[in-house]
Amino acid sequence: MSDCYLPRLGGIEVQVADLVRSQSEAGHDVEVATATPGERIPGVHRIVARMPFDLPVHPRGGAHLLRLMTARRPDVVHVHTGAASPFAWMGVRAAVRAGLPVVVTVHSMWDPVTRTMYRGLDSLFGWTGWNIVGTTVSHAAARPIRAVTAGRVPVDVVSNGLDVSAWRPSGEAPREARDEVHIVAVGRLAPRKQPVRLLKLLLEARRRVPGEVPMRATLVGDGPARGSMERFLRSHGMQRWVSLPGRYSREQIRELLASADVFVAPAPRESFGIAALEARAAGVPVVARTQSGVADFVRPGKEGLLGRTFEELVRAVARLVRDRELREQIARHNRETELTRCTWPAVLDGFEHCYELAKTAAGMHGPKGPGAERG
């Protein structure tokens, strides 16, 4: 279950679709319930209402989902949520009422406002007392959730999945033969991702690099902050060395990473960072926040460099641009070291474990939850 699903394109949508494909290939019978409009596809139940801006919510979603779950009786209900996912949480409530095992995966970082909201919802509905099992995509994302649930809901960490072999470079990377240092970032150009701050970071790093070191940057993505970024580039004369090509397909991103020397993921509230993982799998050194989910697969001096503050990120980028030997050392490590925890077999094993926990909880305690019968 997910509010958002294909044909919408975003981190949760693509990750859930890849999970459905991987579980189906592993022999599971997987069906999807979503509030996202789109074409009719076998196994995808679109519970859609006419909403402004095609928002993926349904005012009577809970009743529809309860009927669907009662009719289908799945072995487990796996719900995927963002920071606020009303339709998905209707699904959690419906599944608990139906006495079904429930696993809830949170794909976002709960900030102070979100934590306050979920504490308030707990006081109204008592959701931390329902028989559910929680997962999230990184240790950084797990900490605020555990602070809210206070041990009443088990919260495991199951990484996002990646087909690592598809991102592995073939042969020796051509990036080492060039003098120019190419910096790449990939992500939605939304204010919460702080894309203008990324431009400030690049500008400051450029000032700290000797003029004889050629440097360019490609920032892939689209979104509401694009206009602000273009104005910043013009006002600081950065158009000559920073480009905003828009949204890229996965194939285009693979080609781009083949020419990248440094990948930058500066958002402090990045719950995981699938684009950074793709770059690491492609052999590119990654610069990211210490407090973000990227720190689960990037260690300082091994797969890249981490910084807690803006200043530390600037120093990290400038250091990698100046220090070719360090850059090549990290790139070589990333190309030669296999990722294991983020591969789809590892992810499927992690979810299988959570499914068994959820089945045990439902079997031991019965359908405890909103409106459930006791006895």
TrEMBL record:
EC number: 2.4.-.-
Every Glycosyltransferase subfamily 4-like N-terminal domain range: 10-165
UniProt GO molecular function: glycosyltransferase activity
Record-annotated Glycosyl transferase family domain positions: 178-336
CDD domains tied to this protein: GT4_PimA-like
UniProt xrefs under PANTHER family: SULFOQUINOVOSYL TRANSFERASE SQD2
Enzyme class: transferase
Keywords assigned by UniProt, alphabetized: Glycosyltransferase, Transferase
Protein name according to UniProt: Glycosyltransferase family 4 protein
Gene3D superfamilies, per database record: Glycogen Phosphorylase B
Keyword Transferase found: yes
Entry-linked Pfam families: Glyco_transf_4, Glycos_transf_1
